[in-house]
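Note to self: user wants both folds in one dump. Writing first protein now.
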Amino acid sequence: MWHVGQRILVVDDDPTVSDVVCRYLRLAGFEVGMVADGAAALAVADRDAPDLVVLDLMLPGIDGLEVCRRLRARPHQIPIVMLTALGDEADRVLGLELGADDYLAKPFSPRELVLRVRSVLRRAGAEPAPAAAPMLVDGDLVLDTGRRLARLRGVELTLTVREFDLLAFFMRNPSRAFRRAELLERVWGWDFGDQSTVTVHVRRLREKLEDDPATPRRIVTVWGVGYRYEMAT
């Protein structure tokens, strides 16, 4: 199943899409495995622990959203790039809420998919981290950016790649308001895209960080602008 390089599992029941995606990923130097349904995807993820999953939403049997949900319920957080139909905005948002790290709407450029995969892997720590990566501390919240670990009150948080990156960005830039478009560019590396991606990730971070997510104290909304991070100390 696997070829040479970092391991990517492609899950799509459309053989034309799968063949194109796999070909481009292999040309980019990745190991690539391919399955066509959700049950097989979960089995391969358990057996082989790929570095990243490219996951179509529309799958026979166990659909992509349920695969994402089950992968996110596991201790080892495998990065996920979702593939969605162009008009499936509600499913796309739900996928992000379930913990997908990125998404592309069909039809998409295979070259762009390769760039997104590389970006997510880089942010997930698949590339070596600097030897002296800084610790970010805000009261009882600690981020070890070298090991990509987050702890709140001594308890390790389960954060996706993008959630970790967004929180680290906020903590490095406290007390400053950022527009959603600016966060999309500086955290995701996109100069265009669906800004609801940022909204969903902020909501998920609040659920994990705030005592009362409805009245957040750390990640606050700046009406008409976007969001600001307020240090607890």
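First done. Writing the second protein, which came from a different request thread.
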Amino acid sequence: MELFPAMPYEDWLETKDTVHRFAQIVGKVRLAASTRRNHWWNVPFHLTGRGLTTRPMGLPEPFSIDFDLVRHRLVVDKADGRSAEFSLIGQSVADFYANLFQVLDDFGVAVEILAVPYDMTDSTPFAQDAKHAAYDPVLVTRYWTVLSQVGQVLERYAADFTGKTSPVHHFWHTFDLAVTRFTGRVVSVPRESDAVTREAYSWEVISAGFWFGDEERPWPAFYSYTAPEPKGLDEQPLWPDWAVWVPSRGSHLAILKYDDARQSDDPVATVLGFLESAYRAGAALTGCDEALVPRIEGVTDPYLEES
């Protein structure tokens, strides 16, 4: 298996647009049926050995929804032992929406969602969207390969941190894979901010991740940002030299393009070095506690070296 296979944005745009909407439908079910956690940690998907999972949700009989991206099936399991699945291939968004909610209805799962895409140019309601129906299994398999490999790199990055850190999780609304380090500082979030922002950024964070590209930046990339952003962040050095700061919605993202990383002599070391440089840029300006500065493998056992 090739490490970091090519994933040109334009090559899989039609499939990506369809799969992203599939993910948002399932993600909205997760949002409605799960127990709320701080910073919305209950909402994203987690990676499995075959794809993505919502994890169990709902009482008194929990259920879960998995994307099996090896067999290209959507699988719904209920704690009473019942299971149902259907193919992801050949489904329009409207078909997918109808099939999923038919399964949930058959299982006695009552859940309501806001059935329109989040933050997409085409906001056709899911139930009416027959346009988005592209699903190339080869490209989806590659998407899964990239997710699984990048996920392991982010797990390695997360392991060096001894403070509060999020899981490595896949956000279905923005279609990125992310992990967040917390400095331990509570911040003052404006009351007029939306509810999502108030919960997500109620603590100071230095976040890192990977996304597959969008209309504004049509290329996959690794990224990092600090929120709230300290003054002068975009003037801090990054490693390697070809990593850059780019403006993003009034703040800045540290960016390392995926293609640049995958073509380097040691892609994993390059990504880890980049993420660490971006973290240190934010930590230096926020005055992050030195106790939280990453140490090898995140070890906190003071007697480990003696054993």
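Dump finished. Worth passing along: The radius of gyration is 20 Å.
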